[in-house]
Specification:
This protein is an alpha/beta fold. The chain has 2 domains: 203 residues, Isopropylmalate Dehydrogenase, CATH 3.40.718.10; 137 residues, Isopropylmalate Dehydrogenase, CATH 3.40.718.10. Helix content is 41%, strand content 18%. Strand 6 and strand 7 form a beta hairpin. The structure holds adenosine-5'-triphosphate. The site of adenosine-5'-triphosphate has 17 residues, from loops. Adenosine-5'-triphosphate binds next to loops.
Length: 356
């Protein structure tokens, strides 16, 4: 049995997450997994109804999720044009990431169909890497601020913080992940202080993994190479902001931001959460064109994590076949709506199951 807390959140997540949930229900029926899920309305939809994004004790509520659930399926949190300025809808996301200390954000970048990449002559073998983004430190410190606001002397301070413990554990996670998934190279992307914490710890941690080649690279070089030679990369581990940017480059070489899923883990905890890499998509909100595949592939990651590999593989096969038949949303060149793509994926699941 897998018990899932579904928290769609804001923006287009309210359009794509329901498609992921319907797809989970479909595989649950086909593979008899025993999935259970409960949906929580934290975010903009709740704000519009009640005037609050989430209850005041949202941090406590999220901290207690692991007592009742094995995982969360999240959508996106943040910008939504329906929220007035100053209302922070990221409280739920922060509570999930920092409150639960789920520090390793695993973002696979795989080409699901050769026609999707904008890169010339690159195949599915070339575009197959994983970005591991530190999820709880860096710019998430909450200490940024402005003073002398509105004057020519206005000053903005945006510190980034990296702790010995935080950097070490995400580097170890990346090397362990490389080992358990049969990879033999880990890149570390940063542009920090020469001899700073990230480069020192990268060297130190890599010595414990002699079977894995460590490559230290500046983030700008990694971004460049992801486009001209993505085949160089197997695992790329990076601090919070760099990891966010690089996984968007990864989303682009995959063909769309609407394809990339992610899972957030702490190996000391069994609870984890999954979400599409993309955000709230304010520019396409309400147009019914958001690609639901990233959310659906996030549910595929969830199933795989809990050992339901066959069900997860079936979802991926259905997504691949729908892409191959051109039944896609406009970001992939098609004309279908979010719901029509979700429906096409579930039909593909059914037809695979009946021909198996
Ligand atoms: P965040 O800060 O949360 O990462 P963002 O504002 O940087 O969010 P997104 O909300 O991901 O970025 O949107 C960036 C661009 O990608 C937008 O043009 C959006 O329309 C597009 N996009 C994002 N998700 C999808 C999707 N599922 N389908 C199609 N286009 C998408």
């Amino acid at each position: 049995m897998v018990r899932i807390a579904v928290i769609p959140g804001d923006g287009i997540a309210n359009e794509v997450v329901p498609e992921a949930v319907k797809t989970l229900d479909a595989v649950n029926a086909l593979f008899e997994i025993g999935l259970e899920h409960e949906t929580f309305d934290y975010g903009v939809e709740r704000y519009l109804r009640t005037g609050e994004v989430a209850p005041d004790n949202i941090d406590e509520i999220i901290k207690k999720l692991p007592e009742k659930f094995d995982a969360a399926l999240f959508g996106a949190g943040g910008i939504d044009p329906r929220l007035p300025a100053g209302v922070n809808a990221q409280v739920v996301l922060r509570a999930l990431r920092r409150g639960l200390d789920l520090f390793a954000n695993v973002r696979p970048c795989r080409l699901l169909h050769p026609s999707l990449t904008p890169l010339k002559n690159k195949t599915s073998d070339d575009i197959n890497f994983v970005v591991i983004r530190e999820n709880t430190e860096g710019y998430e410190g909450g200490t940024a601020g402005n003073f002398k606001r509105g004057t020519p002397d206005e000053t903005e301070i945006r510190p980034e913080y990296n702790t010995y413990k935080g950097v070490k554990r995400v580097l170890e996670f990346a090397f362990d992940y490389a080992r358990t998934t049969g990879r033999n190279r880990v890149h570390m992307a940063e542009k920090g202080l020469p001899g700073g914490l990230w480069s020192r710890l990268f060297q130190e941690v890599s010595e414990k993994y002699p079977d894995i080649e460590p490559v230290h690279m500046h983030i700008d070089t990694v971004a460049y190479l992801m486009i001209v030679a993505p085949e160089e990369f197997q695992i790329v581990v990076a601090e919070n902001r760099a990891g966010d940017i690089l996984s968007d480059v990864g989303g682009a070489v995959q063909g769309s931001r609407g394809l990339a899923p992610t899972g957030c883990f702490n190996p000391e905890k069994s609870f984890c959460y999954f979400e599409p890499v993309h955000g709230t998509g304010p520019d396409i909100l309400g147009k019914n064109v958001a690609n639901p595949m990233a959310a659906i592939m996030a549910s595929r990651m969830l199933l795989e994590h809990f050992g339901h590999t066959q069900a997860g593989d079936a979802i991926e096969a259905a997504v691949r076949s729908v892409i191959a038949s051109g039944k896609t949303t406009p970001d992939l060149g098609g004309t279908l709506s979010t719901q029509e793509v979700g429906e096409a994926i579930r039909e593909a699941l059914d037809s695979e199951a009946s021909s198996a």
